[in-house]
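Q: Hi! First time asking for a complex rather than a single chain. Here are the components, and I think there are two in total. Is that enough to go on?
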Amino acid sequence: MKRWLLLVLLAPAAQACELPGGPAQSIQSANVAIAYRTAPLRVGEHFAVEFAVCPAPASVTVDAWMPDHRHGMNYKPTIASLGGGRYRAEGLMFHMPGRWEFVFDVRAGGRTERLLKSVRIE
Amino acid sequence: MRFLLALLLAVATQAAAFTDAEVRAIASHGPWPPAFRADPSNRVSGNPQAIDLGERLFFERRLSADGEQSCSRCHLPERNWTDGEQRARGIALVDRNTPSLSNVRLQRWFGWDGAHDSLWSQAIRPILDAKEMGSSAARVAQLLREDADLSCRYRKAFGAPAGSDEKVLVDAVKAIAAFQETMMSGRSAFDDFRDALVKGDKAGVAKYPETARRGLALFIGKGSCNTCHVGSAFTNGEFHDTGIPFFIEPGRVDPGRSGGIKKLLADRFNLLGPYNDDPKRTTATSTRHVVPEHRNFGEFKVPSLRNLALTAPYMHNGRLATLRDVVDHYSNISPDRLHSDGEAILKPLKLSAGESRDLVAFLESLQDEGANYRRVGFAQDCK
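A: Yes, that's all I need. Here is the structure of the assembled complex.
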């Protein structure tokens, strides 16, 4: 599982992915690319994630956890599709400072691919 | 002599030095006090007439079933709005320690288990709880309709006491909440140090006691206390298992946050319900997204550390008598006693006796300087 995940993380992007409206972070694998944007992250404050998935998937979820602490968030985000592979997730909160990891599970072509992005919050 | 002075100065400068990352960590605990922001779920938040009514209701014993209880019976101003008892006692002995109300308006969740999502809805529970004030909506509404002075003050804040007893009860707790929002602690020695450090004011920095400075270094370093005690209020407002036993008595356990989430979601007074005065529900995001997890069992809210020295005994059940006991608890904590589904946050700090004293000195430096509450204006009649 870990080796498969590493391959996904290191593999070249299938295609570029754009999120209109300003600068965005990107994550990519051999099959999927994600561009996402948040407001500045602050400990203990709810935030939303706007993101685009390329190519547009059948479905997608977003979550986050602290690998060093081995726990996730205390809140479950809701995701609204904006059409054309764009989404807005609301209700996330990083309740501790430190390293968090966004977890995007992208469902397409009958399989689920997991893409991770590490972020640090002070 | 000159050499000795230079040496002492060098030692003092070295002791005062924090890395850039440490300065950022320290700066994150301020500035203090924060600006007032009205609670949109409470239409009388910040309203002087409501604060006046709420102050009177906070000290009003006629709200209780036996005429002896009031909010102030357990939340004493001179004890930083707590009571000094291990467990609260109203009409009967309560299961938990009385939490301080100091800076309570900054919280996201209310009560040790976070069973309430607004300050006003939290105030309903002790009024109705059979062990605390044992009252009813009818009793509260009757007092506000029939007592000439309280009725006058209610009209000034809300208009005529119209509608159901429950609606009048909700108005009453919104007035109490408006008063509780004024319970803010003042500036502490730490705040002066923090501001001086941010400004690069060496003379201001030097005024902070060396023991407290060493304790602060432990707080943000070896102790990692600032993992949960974050921000200017020194709390992330969330819930953790800290290894305190959750047996109330043999055969009876306190489920903590696990029970709190169930109560919250079943509570018709929560922010998703009809009594939220904000049609946009802007402060209901946490309620909308909170999810029960197995690990919530035995979790309790992370308390603010401001004015901590005034609020002994400590923890949700008042089990630890002194600040030193609290520090010793985290110094010697057994990971085996944690009930946290594999979380890896707490580990024994193994502090030396000197380190423990320093950490206590830092915690004591979070106490404000004489900003105690004074009751005023109660002799005036309402016209």
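A: The radius of gyration of chain A is 14 Å. Let me know if you'd like any chain examined more closely.
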